[in-house]
Design the sequence.
């Protein structure tokens, strides 16, 4: 029975790799919408994957969110990759502190026995403030570390869930709704075709920057996130997806 389940999951992995043009996919059994331990399993799978690719002195940029919090929770000392540096991928994006990239970055670093640097910037930012802030030496230094990250690990969210969680102003909510946004990642909101409907102005990794990193790992699961995951991959390029059976089956429906 267990072997049968494993075989089913590895079939899903192969199918998803083809469908989303990925280098590597991990599907953990179950649906994290229904069972919270499935999210922990994704966290564990992500840590395992990271341990296989990280080297000594690497820099890892991480986003916020509950799924990334599970990755941080499951992290253990990186014995083969000493002295790694963790940085937040972007600013706080209006999230509560427990979901913020800074918080998750610090937690992950301490569990990994690594180091961290944080970003102290208010956000979202006006264009004017953005230009001033990116010129500040202390911010500039961290931004350079972020831009030079060897590995980026990020979550993907449902657009409306994310917009509401971030207490997005009503005018922006309207834009997100009328643009039919379904997915969100790195503060960008995407419609089902993968077009960008809205972007939260803040410092850190911009979508274009993903092209300069050859190891971008997305961690997102739950059947309810299938549309969001699909929309993200129509626009952006991550190389690896760590997900669950719930999302994988939904993503593969109709193929
Ligand atoms: C946020 C990231 O903090 O977490 C988003 O900035 C991501 O880009 C979201 O979509 C995912 O959150 P969760 O809780 O569904 O893992």
Sequence:
């Amino acid at each position: 029975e267990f072997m049968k389940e494993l075989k089913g999951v590895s079939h899903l992995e192969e199918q998803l790799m083809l469908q989303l043009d990925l280098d590597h996919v991990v599907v953990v059994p179950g649906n994290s919408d229904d069972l919270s331990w499935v999210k922990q399993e994704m966290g564990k799978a992500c840590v395992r994957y990271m341990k296989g690719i990280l080297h000594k002195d690497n820099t890892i940029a991480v986003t916020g969110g509950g799924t990334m919090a599970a990755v941080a929770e499951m992290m253990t000392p990186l014995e083969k990759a000493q002295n790694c540096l963790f940085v937040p991928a972007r600013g706080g994006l209006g999230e509560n502190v427990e979901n913020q990239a800074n918080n998750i970055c610090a937690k992950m670093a301490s569990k990994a026995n690594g180091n961290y640097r944080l970003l102290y910037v208010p956000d979202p930012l006006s264009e004017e403030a953005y230009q001033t802030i990116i010129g500040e030496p202390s911010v500039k230094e961290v931004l350079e570390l972020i831009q030079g990250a060897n590995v980026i690990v990020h979550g993907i969210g449902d657009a409306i869930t994310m917009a509401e969680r971030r207490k997005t102003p009503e005018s922006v909510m309207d834009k997100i709704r009328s643009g039919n946004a379904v997915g969100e990642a790195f503060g960008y909101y995407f419609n089902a075709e993968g077009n960008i409907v809205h972007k939260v102005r803040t410092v850190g990794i911009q979508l274009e920057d993903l092209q300069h990193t050859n190891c971008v790992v997305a961690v997102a699961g739950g059947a309810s996130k299938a549309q969001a995951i699909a929309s993200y991959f129509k626009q952006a390029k991550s190389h690896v997806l760590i997900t669950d059976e719930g999302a994988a089956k939904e993503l593969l429906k109709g193929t």
